[in-house]
Amino acid sequence: MLRTLLSTLSAALAFSAPLVAAQDITSNATSLTGTWSSGSGAVVTGPSFADPMNNDRPFIYPSNTGISYSFTDDGYFEMAQYRFNANASRPDCPTAVVLWQHGTYALHPNNSLTMDPSPFAMDGRVQTQNPCSPTTNVLTEFAQFEVWNSWKIGIDTNHAAYALQAVDVNGKKPRMFLTVRPPTMLPTASLTGIFNGSIPLSP
Ligand SMILES: *[C@@H]1O[C@H](CO)[C@@H](O)[C@H](O)[C@H]1NC(C)=O
Ligand SMILES: *[C@@H]1O[C@H](CO)[C@@H](O)[C@H](O)[C@H]1NC(C)=O
Ligand SMILES: *[C@@H]1O[C@H](CO)[C@@H](O)[C@H](O)[C@H]1NC(C)=O
Ligand SMILES: *[C@@H]1O[C@H](CO)[C@@H](O)[C@H](O)[C@H]1NC(C)=O
């Protein structure tokens, strides 16, 4: 898939006259639909990252930290994140944080994008692991409304990939690259409802 994208892009770049700047983020080069992943692409939404109804092993830890977002063209999003939080008093004890949620998103005329986990609020999970704390492993539900004040998609010629730059209240988020389209996601439905039998699995 990536290979196909790369060759498509190389072909497009070879035949279009002007050289695209290394980080041309001046317009939406493509649609938001798909799976986007930061850095080396270690964190990707979908079943390779999260198994939220499995309390014993709700996450498959990626090889590296990062963030990932997926969007469908019918209004659903999924988010995955793996990071370390530094501990100033114990520099040898960073806390590992993995989190996952899904829900619906909306695009607004002022170019903001909002993501609302409330339709599936019981599905999201966050797990923290502090190797130096007596309670080393804590798993709780997670549902956090998220706002991107703005976002743009350009072409990054260094990576030969579509690049998504989102800006939230803290400033620029890590740039993410289009990994796969259509997106890799868990079912865009209440997993809690499917799991507890209140929503039928298939028609
Ligand atoms: C953009 O629009 C959204 C949705 O209407 C709103 O919540 C947000 O405050 C607006 N942002 C700005 C900077 O006006
Ligand atoms: C990118 O696309 C979104 C959704 O169509 C639109 O709201 C936004 O204005 C576009 N941004 C730019 C810079 O074209
Ligand atoms: C830092 O580590 C200590 C020892 O494990 C722990 O008690 C404390 O809560 C940690 N602080 C933060 C901010 O995580
Ligand atoms: C089953 O899932 C539904 C949908 O998320 C939820 O509203 C309901 O509270 C759940 N019931 C139980 C017993 O967990």
TrEMBL record:
Signal sequence, renumbered to the chain: 1-22
Keyword terms of this UniProt record: Signal
BP-aspect Gene Ontology terms: 'de novo' protein folding
GO cellular component: endoplasmic reticulum membrane
Example of a GO MF term: unfolded protein binding
Classification via PANTHER family: PROTEIN ROT1
Protein name in the entry: ROT1 protein
Species per Swiss-Prot/TrEMBL record: Rhodotorula toruloides (strain NP11) (Yeast)
